[in-house]
């Protein structure tokens, strides 16, 4: 076969890559910068249309199996006989298992974590056909009762469209990463009608930066996707609830307390998801494709008693927001939902964890509010108001992204009068959760694979200073220390450690290193008269606590020492800093 001519590329049916002439037309249509903005709009449009198509599949499937007239199937599931509640989830598990066997690999894996990894590690590359298949199977599984979120499918298809467009047009890794984040954010925006919160989610969680040059593209994609979904699906908040207001100082204190409690629950949620995944990873590899069937069979068994745990839980959250769920269910369902969600996610049933976390938080908040109502009869706000605060607090606690969490909940409910207690509860929950579980729901998956993602706080806030890395200098000698004592102390030092010579006030005078001492031994007849001041190196330049770690790294570049002394402004010895600690813990 002759070699293709220069610039010609054969289309790849597996990736859906367009023909060479179409790519050349697209590349030459506009300048590079304008073409990128056209792609930003295109990603938003594709994400919005993809959301419309996937939600149509969701509604059709739920109507087919549950006789539901809307996408919320709890009423239809409650009216269904026990055998249907059991068999339909089992059918969903069988579908996931069958697809896994056909494609030769499981569909497991956290979608959002995979997108973050794609942005930071894989230069924005996502396998387009696998993402589409995973999204389609995910939406079917949720419709059949999988206790996961529908947003997983919309997020995957949006991100994959951004990756595919950047790959087809041979964009650089920087623009590819932004397009993937645009697609994922647009998927969330179209799923929940939250353009502002989705844009900030993309910046805070996916890109880890609020840089102005990133804000524009993500906002445009989210706006376009939301316009499409509002035009073709619905133009109202996701949750239509009564008007609540928490303005009394007592209620702000209760919001603070709720934030602390839900922060701990958020850490439990993250650890529960990870624990189930770790346990299921230890099973024999031949069992892996069949685990979705096993997990969904468990869901079916629980559904015989009641279908509240099936699906993404929208109806239960809505009931908690209206204060119509009994206290017993508000206390039992959150942990039960966490258990089945962890099982299904770890077993390989594709779906999102975003919506189940809203279920978890709303019911915990509703239980808190109902208990407060009983403790303070007539003096507390309705439990539905605390259910809303619980949603925002868990979202902030599990994602460690309090800004986007607050705005998402506000856009989902449209209740501005709760914004102050919502902000307070979300921030407190994020702080408590981060203290108990340093990794978020998304980064914990990556941390196990040694994938490091930049934090979403400014560099100058997260950078560790010199003081946090220094070690105490326990071995000091006066300048008059005899030579034989110096040698003994040096030999007792751990590898790479030196001996520091200080005066009576603790000021650094010089450094004695064993290697330097070997080549500069005085005449044997003079050893008895030699002291530390005679063999110390006064040319070693110490470091001070006010230096940045980048400056310290540059200082190490001009010396062969493994450690450098740290002194204050008057040369008082504070300790030492090793090159190894700098490289392991420093961020530059």
Describe the structure.
By secondary structure, this protein is mainly alpha-helical. The protein has 3 domains: 22-233, Clc chloride channel, CATH 1.10.3080; 249-286 and 301-449, Orthogonal Bundle (Clc chloride channel); 466-585, CBS-domain (Roll). The chain contains 26 helices and 5 strands. A hairpin with a 5-residue loop joins strand 2 (499-502) and strand 3. The longest helix is centred in the first third of the chain and has 35 residues, at 32-66. Mean pLDDT is 82; it is low at 1-16 and 456-462.
**Kindly state the mean pLDDT as a whole number?**
82
Structural class: mainly alpha
Number of beta-strand segments: 5
Share in helix: 55-70%
Our measurement of the CA-to-CA distance between the termini, rounded to an integer number of angstroms, reads 51 Å
InterPro entries: CBS_dom, CBS_dom_sf, Cl-channel_core, ClC, ClC-type_chloride_channel
Transmembrane segments: 36-58, 86-104, 178-202, 214-232, 252-270, 290-311, 323-348, 354-372, 384-410, 416-433
Pfam family, one: CBS
GO molecular function: chloride channel activity
Helices and strands, with pairings:
Layout: H1 20-29, H2 32-66, H3 74-79, H4 82-103, H5 111-120, H6 128-143, H7 151-168, H8 173-192, H9 195-207, H10 212-232, H11 249-281, H12 291-305, H13 314-321, H14 327-347, H15 354-375, H16 383-399, H17 402-413, H18 419-436, H19 443-447, H20 459-462, H21 466-469, E1 476-477, H22 483-492, E2 499-502, E3 508-512, H23 514-518, H24 532-535, H25 549-556, E4 563-567, E5 573-578, H26 579-585
């Amino acid at each position: 076969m002759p070699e293709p001519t220069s610039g010609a590329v054969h289309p790849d049916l597996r990736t859906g890559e367009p023909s060479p002439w179409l790519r050349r037309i697209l590349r030459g249509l506009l300048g590079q910068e304008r073409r990128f903005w056209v792609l930003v709009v295109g990603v938003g449009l594709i994400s919005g249309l993809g959301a419309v198509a996937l939600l149509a599949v969701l509604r059709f499937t739920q109507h087919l199996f549950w006789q539901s007239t809307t996408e919320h199937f709890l009423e239809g599931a409650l009216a269904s006989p026990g055998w249907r509640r059991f068999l339909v989830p089992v059918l969903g598990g069988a579908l996931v298992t069958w697809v896994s066997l056909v494609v030769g690999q499981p569909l497991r894996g956290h979608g959002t974590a995979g997108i973050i990894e794609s942005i930071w590690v894989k230069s924005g590359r996502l396998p387009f056909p696998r993402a589409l298949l995973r999204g389609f199977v995910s939406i079917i599984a949720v419709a059949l009762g999988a206790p996961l979120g529908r947003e997983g499918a919309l997020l995957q298809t949006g991100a994959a469209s951004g990756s595919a467009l950047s790959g087809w047009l041979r964009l650089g890794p920087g623009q590819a990463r932004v397009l993937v984040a645009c697609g994922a954010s647009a998927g969330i925006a179209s799923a929940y009608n939250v353009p502002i919160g989705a844009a900030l989610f993309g910046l805070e969680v996916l890109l880890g930066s609020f840089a102005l040059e990133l804000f524009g593209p993500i906002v445009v994609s989210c706006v376009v996707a939301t316009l499409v979904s509002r035009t073709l699906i619905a133009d109202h908040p996701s949750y239509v609830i009564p008007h609540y207001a928490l303005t009394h100082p007592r209620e702000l204190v209760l919001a603070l307390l709720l934030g602390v409690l839900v922060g701990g629950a958020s850490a439990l949620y993250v650890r529960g998801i990870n624990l189930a995944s770790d346990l299921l990873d230890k099973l024999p590899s031949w069992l892996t494709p069949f685990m979705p069937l096993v997990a969904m069979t468990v869901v079916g068994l629980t559904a015989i008693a009641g279908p509240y745990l099936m699906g993404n839980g929208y109806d239960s959250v809505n009931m908690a927001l209206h204060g119509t769920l009994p206290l017993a269910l508000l206390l039992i369902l959150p942990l039960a939902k966490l258990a089945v969600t962890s099982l299904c996610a770890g077993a390989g049933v594709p779906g999102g964890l975003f919506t189940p976390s809203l279920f978890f938080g709303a019911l915990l908040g509703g239980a808190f509010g109902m208990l407060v109502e009983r403790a303070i009869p007539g003096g507390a706000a309705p439990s539905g108001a605390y259910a809303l605060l619980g949603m925002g607090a868990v979202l902030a606690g599990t994602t460690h992204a309090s800004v986007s969490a607050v705005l998402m909940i506000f856009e989902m409910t449209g209740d501005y009068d709760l914004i102050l207690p919502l902000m307070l509860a979300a921030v407190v929950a994020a702080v408590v959760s981060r203290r108990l579980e340093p990794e978020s729901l998304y980064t914990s998956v990556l941390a196990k694979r040694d994938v490091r993602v930049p934090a979403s706080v400014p560099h100058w806030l997260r950078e560790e200073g010199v003081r946090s890395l220094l070690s105490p200098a326990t071995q000091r000698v006066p300048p008059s220390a005899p030579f034989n004592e110096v040698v003994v102390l040096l030999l007792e030092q751990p590898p790479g450690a030196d001996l520091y010579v200080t005066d009576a006030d603790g000021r650094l005078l010089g450094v004695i290193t064993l290697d330097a001492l070997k080549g500069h031994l005085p005449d044997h007849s003079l050893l008895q008269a030699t002291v530390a001041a005679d063999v110390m190196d006064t040319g070693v330049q110490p470091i001070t606590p006010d230096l940045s770690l980048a400056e310290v790294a540059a200082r190490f570049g001009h010396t062969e020492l493994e450690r450098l002394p740290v002194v204050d402004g008057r040369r008082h010895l504070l300790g030492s800093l090793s090159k190894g600690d700098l490289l392991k813990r420093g961020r530059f």
